[in-house]
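User: I'm putting together a teaching handout on how multi-component assemblies are represented. Below are the sequence lines for each component of a complex, exactly as they appear in our records. Could you produce the 3D structure of the whole assembly as C-alpha cells, so the students can see both representations side by side? Please keep the chain order the same as the input.
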Amino acid sequence: MKILILLISTLVVFIQRIPSLPICNLQTAKQAIPPRIFAEQTIDGSSQAIFLTRFLHNKAGILASELGRCYANVLDPNFLSQALTPLGLIFILYFIYQILAERKIIFAIIFAAVPLAAILNVPTAPIVIIYKLFAIIGLTFLLSKIE
Amino acid sequence: MKSFLTKNLLLISILVLAAFLRFFQLGQNPPGLSVDEVSNGYNAYSILKTARDEYGNFLPLTFRSFGDYNLPLSVYTLVPSIAIFGLTEFAVRFPSALFGTLAVLLTYILAKKLFEESQNGWQLWKGPRQRADSVHGQEKLESKIKSSTDGPPKASLAFSRRETIDRTRSKLIALLSAFFLAISPWHLQFSRYDHEANFMVFFIVLGLTTFLYGLKNFSLLAASAVFFGLAVNTYHGAKIWVPLFLIVILFWYRKEIIKFKIKLIWLSLILIVFSLPIILNLQKSLIRGQSVGVLGQPNPLETFITGYLAHYSPNFLFISGDSIGRHSVPGMGQLYVFEAPLVILGILYLIAQKTKSPKFLLAWLVIAAIPAAAATPTPHALRGLTFIPVWSIITACGVTALLEAKFKANLKKGIAFILVVVAFYNIVTYFHLYYKHYPKEKAPDWSQGYKEMVEAVDEIKDNYGSIAITSYFGHPYIFTLFYSRYDPLKYHSQSEDKNKFAKFEFFSSSWEQTKPGKALVITPPWQAHPPKVLKEIYAINGDLKFTISETE
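Assistant: Of course. Below is the structure of the complete assembly, with chains in the same order as your input.
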C-alpha cells in the first residue's frame, strides 16, 4: 500500500508542469542598484549627513535586498505549489522539518543552496526537479512514520 | 512598589518603548488622515455632539459611512478621545496607538501563560543517539523526582528547580514576544493609524488571555466571551476570524471546557448578544464581504488557495511587504529580515513542545491566513493582522531555541553576534524609511493636502457665495466636514446629497457657477481654473495638489 501511494504521488508530483520564475538574477539585481540609490538618496536630500545616507542606502545593501528577493521567489509557497502540486508542497514541508529535526546538515545545505542557482541564471527546470525529489523524499519520511 | 518596578523593569522598559514608538509624531506621520480615519473621526464627533451619526441615525449599531456599513466599535472608541483632544489627527489615532501599546502588554501575559509548562527545545537539534540520551536523561530525572527515597525535601527541591526553569523560560519568551511586537513594522504600521482591525487584534489577544486564565475561573471565562464578542464588532474580517478562532480554541481545549457543563450556555448567550449588531443588520454587514470576497472571483477555490499561500511568502514577510501604500513601508517586509532564521527555529521549537498550549500557536499560524485569503487582493497585511502576535511569539521562541541550543559556546556567540548586527541594521533602516521616506513616498495614500486646503478655505470662506471643491482625490465632503469641524447638527439634514452642503459644492470633471456672487474654486493641478490664483497647496513630496482660485 505504501509503495502504491509512493508511486502515485511520485507520478503526480513529477508530471506537474514546471512554472516559470520571475526574471530575477545577479544581473537584474545589479541593474536595480543605480536607480534605487538615486531615488533613495534624492528622498534623503542633501541636508542629511552623507555618512547616514551611505550607511542606509549603499550598493551592498541594495544588492543584498535584490538578491534576497530572487532567493525568496524560489521559496515562494505559491511557486512550490504550482511546481509540486499542493500535495507536493506538504511533502516538501515535511522534508524540511525532518532534515532540520534530524540534523541532516547536507540536505539542509542543499535545500538552502538550490535557490542560489536561480540567482546565477540557472534555468527553472533543474531547480524544480531537485525540489520534486525533495518532496518525494519527504513523502518517504512521512510514510516511514506511518505504522 | 519599588520591588514591583525592579522585578518588572524589563517589561516596563519594553512598554515605554512600545508607547514611544506608537505615540511619537502620531498626528504627523503617517502624513495626513486617510478617508476612513476622517469618516470615523467625524462620525465619532457627530456622536459626541448629537448622539447621532453623520446621517442623523441615533446611536447606530452599524455606520453607513460611504455605504460600506462599518461595525460600530471603532467609531465609539474614538468618542472619548475626541472629547478630550478635540477633532484632530492625534485624537483620531490615539485609541489605536493606545490599544497597540496595550496589545504589547497582553502579548507578554499571553506568552507567559502559554509557555508556563514548556520544555526546552534543544533536543530537536541533536542527532538520534544524543536525543535518546537526552530522553533517557529526562526520564532519569523524572523518576528520580518521583521515587526519591531520600525523603520529601530533596524531591521537592528537584520539582522546584524545574518549576524555576519553566518560569524563567516562560518569562524570557514573554519578554521577547513583547519586545518583538513593540518594534514590529507590521504592528507599528497599524497601531499608528485608526483602523478597526487593530482593535480586533487587541480584543482577540485579550479574549484568548482571559480564556486561558479562565480555564480555572468561570468569571474570567465569561469575560473572555465578552472580549471575543467585542472583537466581532470591530472589523468586517472579524466576522470570519472570530468564529474560526473560537472553533479552534474550543477544539484545542475541549477537555478543559467541557468541565464547565451547563455554565457554557452563559458563554454562548454572551456571544449571541454581542453578535446581535451583525445579525440584526445582516444584509448591510455582508455588503463589504460581497464586494471583495473570493466568491465573486472566476475560480474561487484557486483564488483562495493562492491567496492563502501568499501570506506565507518569504517575499511578503521579509522583503517587500504589502504593496498597498497604507499597509507597509516601501523597501521593508512585514517582518524584519533578521527574524527569518528565528521564525524557522521558533516553529521547530514549538513542534518540539509536548504541552498543548504552545502548540496552539501552530494552529493559530495555520488558520491566520484564512480570513485574509477569503478576500482579494492578496497578500493583504491588514486582513492578515490576525498573524501579528503569533509571529512575535514564534520569533521569541526562535531566540529561546538558540539560547538553549547546545552548540559550541563560540559558535553560539558568533551566530548571536551576526543576528544582533543584522537586527540593528534592519531596525535602524526601518525607522529611517518610516520617518524620512514614507511621508514623501506615500503622501497620496494618506490624502495629504486636504487639511491644508480646507484650513486655507476656512479662513476666507465668508467672502464667497459658493465654494467649489474638486472630488478628483475622493470624498472631499468628509474632509471638509472634518477639517472645518462643521456642526454635525446642521449637517444631518443635508447628509443625503454628497455633492454639496452649506455653500460647498463638489464637482468631478468640470464646474459651472450656479449661484450669484464670487466663488472660490479648488481644482487639481491638471484642471483649468479661474485666472486669479489665491494659493497653491503642495504635498509633502513637493507635488502640486490643489490650486485655490476665485472667480471675478
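A couple of points students might notice: The first strand of chain B starts at residue 466 and ends at 470. Chain B has two domains: 2-131+167-437, 450-550.
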